[in-house]
Amino acid sequence: MRQTWKQAVWDAVKRRAGQSGAVSRQELIELDLPAIVAVVGSAGATPAQTLSRVLQDLRDDGVLIFDGGGRYRLASGLAGLDIEAAVETETLRMQKARLGQGAFRKALEHRWHGRCPMTGIEERALLRASHIVPWNRCENEAERLSADNGLLLSALWDAAFDRGLVGFDDDGAVMFAASLHRIAEAALRHDANLVLPGLTEPVRQRLQRHRVLHGAGGLRRSF
User: Fold this and answer.
1) In this structure, which long-range contacts are made by residues 162-166, counting pairs with CB atoms below 8 Å and at least 24 apart in sequence?
2) CB under 8 Å, gap of 24 or more: what pairs does 181-187 form?
3) What pLDDT, in 10s, does the model give residues 142-198?
């Protein structure tokens, strides 16, 4: 039975990671690429590049975590699942973490005293647990759940921050994307504190990574 590239690569990663805890792109190319091509039924022009692209897709889906040094490992609790179930499980896990059913949300509520530091909003239903380094870009499970990698933001600020339309400089000052419409910027500025308080060094470092991921060149200080 033919498989998709995504399923075939996922199965290969599960086999290798189950043996050693992590697997590198090079190991998959050297040891598994012929078998992957066989079950997919098509090599394509550049199978090694296709495999690399699929690994990135799996990382973007959150089911693989990049450990550095070119090595990947499975996100926790997914080893027994096919790729569709794994992606669904990881999506639900992220939603729970953001909306209030997870340890990450609880840690941020404690860190930020149950209020958005930008607007002062305390209505729990209007607050979101925002990852600074996105869930699918975290280097390990600990970073995904760390309060040093999150902000408790009102829904509007969360949406803007998640999409890189706002960021924060090393002093915590808000930075707005040049592409942000003036009406949206005015709404974000309204009744808002434009400096993120209480920065720690771990948070500052992750805010730098957030700017890089979203293209710091398009951000400007708010004042």
Assistant:
1) 162/130, 162/134, 163/214, 164/210, 164/213, 164/214, 164/215, 164/218, 164/219, 166/219
2) 184/160, 187/156
3) 888 899 999 999 999 999 999 999 999 999 999 999 999 999 999 999 988 999 999
Nearest to 132 by CA among 46, 37, 67, 202: 202
> Which pTM value belongs to this model?
0.74
Beta strands 174-177; 150-154: pairing state? unpaired
Of all helices (H) and strands (E), which one includes residue 219?
A: strand 219-221
Contact 199, 173 (CB under 8 A): no
**Amino acid present at 151:** L
Contact partners, residue 203, CB within 8 Å, separation at least 6: 132, 148, 149
Q: What three-state secondary structure class fits 79? A: coil
The pair phi, psi for residue 23, each rounded to 5°, is -145, 145
Q: Report CA dihedral (215, 218, 219, 223) to the nearest 10 degrees.
A: 170
Is the separation of the CB atoms in 142 and 107 below 8 Å? Answer: no
Q: What are phi and psi of 164, to 5 degrees?
A: 75, 15
| Beta carbons within 8 Å of 155's beta carbon, 6+ residues apart | 126, 127, 128
Q: Which two tokens stand for residue 38?
A: 């066989």
